[in-house]
Amino acid sequence: MAQVDQFELPDDLYYDRKDHLWARLEQGRVRVGLDQFGQKAAGTVAYVKLMPVGKVVAKGRAFGSLEAGKYIGPLKAPVSGKLVEVNAAVLATPGLVNTDPYGEGWFVAIEPSNLQADLADLAHGPDVQTWLESEMNDYRARGLFPS
Amino acid sequence: MATIRLLDVGLVSPLRSQTLYHAVAYALDATTPDTIMLVSSDQPYVCVGFHQEAEKEVDLDYCSEHGLPVLRREVGGGAVYLDSGQVFTQWIFQRRHLPADLGERFRLYVGPLVETYRALGVNATYRPINDIHVEGRKIGGTGAASIGEAEVVVGSLMLDFNFELMARVLKVASEKMRDKIYQSLNEYMTTLTRQLGQPPDRQAVQQRYVEQCTRALGCEIVPGELTERELAVARELDERFASDEWLHQKGGLRQQGVKIHEDVRVVEAAHKAPGGLVRVTARLRHGRIDDLTLSGDFTILPAFGTGALEQALRGMSLDAEACTRRVEEVYRALGLQSPGLTPEAIAQAVLALASPPA
After folding, report:
1. Residue A35 DSSP one-character state
2. Checking phi first, is residue B108 left (phi over 0); if not, alpha (psi -120 to 50) or beta?
3. For chain A, how many structural domains are there in total?
4. Which domains are present in chain B?
5. In sequence order, what are the residues at sequence separation of 6 or more whose Cβ sits closer than 8 angstroms to the Cβ of residue A138?
6. Measured between CB atoms, which of A46, A47, A144 is closest to B100?
7. Is residue A144 part of a domain?
8. Which end of chain B is more exposed for a tag (fewer CB within 10 A), N or C?
9. Using one digit for the tens of pLDDT, what is the confidence trace for A12-48?
10. Residue A54 has what pLDDT?
């Protein structure tokens, strides 16, 4: 588990370094959610919109969007592939993104089409701690994150 | 941070007042300067939040009959009536040039708006997370979004605002609700025109705002122009934003009632009892009943009983036990009778104000 202050990022997951989405590899598919840094920065999630099962998304393109109290942002796929499952629970109860970001708060499962290449630029394993520290230090150095 | 580009595009069409800043965001690449855009619409229109369902939030028939365009933005929040009385102050920044934490981001963004009002003699204060208040009244709202590779924060300098049309364009369940929204907007919102007693000079307000942004961001703000690429993206967005497909998206975020400002919300609920339908229209302030109207096809005798109940419920929080007890007290004290309608049923109608929308 990578950890900086209150942020915990399980290092068995893969992380998009820009958008803070996580990817979990599961027998032929990739489950996707928002990491703790991302959900804390966004605030309490009020609404989640997801594309339907069967939709094909490219890495870096939106598979949905979320609205927190005062913020809207796209949810960008960390890997390319076809949506094979959409989390009905998070659509009904968007707050799961905040309360259980690595569990019940996941968004979609993707059947990947180019997995090995897509994983290459995601943070994983020991890199997660290094990346998280660097992310926090960078924001703090510029006074862009509360201490 | 290098210099910031200022795009003062003046008065443009309703469509362009939305598509231009989206275009700057979508066209943003690593070489694009952080940009502050100042823009007003030259015609009135209605703008809905990205996740709202326009049919459920806006009286589209009224808008159509009165030639009011309805547009969807890619920023959140609720439906709003807009016209030339607001200068939109849109920040389109590189992601890493704004605080990651939204609370901090809004604090940075709201600061120059507050200081502009104060420089004009209006006692504005920051009301976290993203409101600006003048002695308890809101003066403009703000919102944030990630659009393309850009981080966008939007808000406005509220020169003037048409409270009546704001209340009129919303789709509401009853005219009582509309009246209460209008009263609440009047009571809990303000504008520069109202505060100063006369319309302010648009250019003077904008100039002060740019000065305050320079101070808050600690960098030079330089007038610039939209690039050819940004204009090309704007033309593409003009088409998308004007399409029925874009406006009439289904699903959507339903919010409880109409938010007037961070602490004030107008809500309505109904409860069917054997003695008739009880409709409750209320304004909640800090979660307590600030004002309340009971209506419907029920009968309470003597006739002043309805007004007495409305008075007695003011100041109450939406607590089941306390509300029921208060209604029962009024029934006992005044000897009220209501065929087919128990005090508990009235309390249930009031408590339904706390329920999320269907």
Report:
1. -
2. alpha
3. 1
4. 4-247 (3.30.930.10), 263-354 (3.30.390.50)
5. B96
6. A144
7. no
8. C
9. 999 999 889 999 999 999 999 999 988 888 889 999 9
10. 96
> Which residues of chain B make contact with A67, given a CB cutoff of 8 A?
49-51, 76, 253
pLDDT of amino acid A147: 47
Residue B200 touches chain A, beta carbons under 8 Å: no
- Give domain status of residue A64, yes or no: yes
A140/B contact by beta carbon, under 8 A: no
Q: In this predicted complex, what is the ipTM?
A: 0.83
Determine, for residues A144 and B51 on separate chains, whether the beta-carbon distance falls below 8 Å. Answer: no
Assigned domain for A120 exists: yes
pTM of the model: 0.87
Residue B28 three-state SS:
coil
Closest to A72 in 3D by CA, of A45, A34, A98: A45
Is the predicted pLDDT of residue B357 greater than 70, yes or no? no
- The domain of A108 spans 2-139
β-strands B4-12, B35-41 pairing: parallel
Sign of the alpha-carbon dihedral angle for B238, B240, B245, B250: negative
Instruction: Choose from A70, A86, A134, A144 for mutation: most chain B CBs within 10 A.
Output: A70
B98 part of contact set with chain A, CB < 8 Å = yes
User: Does residue A130 fall inside a structural domain?
Assistant: yes
3-class secondary-structure state, position A62: strand
Which secondary-structure segment (H or E) carries B310? helix B305-313
Q: Which of B129, B145, B253 sits opposite A73 (nearest CB)?
A: B145
Q: Give the CA distances from residue A45 to residues A38, A99, B126, in Å, rounded to whole numbers and listed in that order.
A: 11, 10, 23
A75 touches chain B (CB under 8 A): no
CA distance B325 to chain A (A): 33
- Which pLDDT band holds residue B351 (cuts at 50, 70, 90)? very high
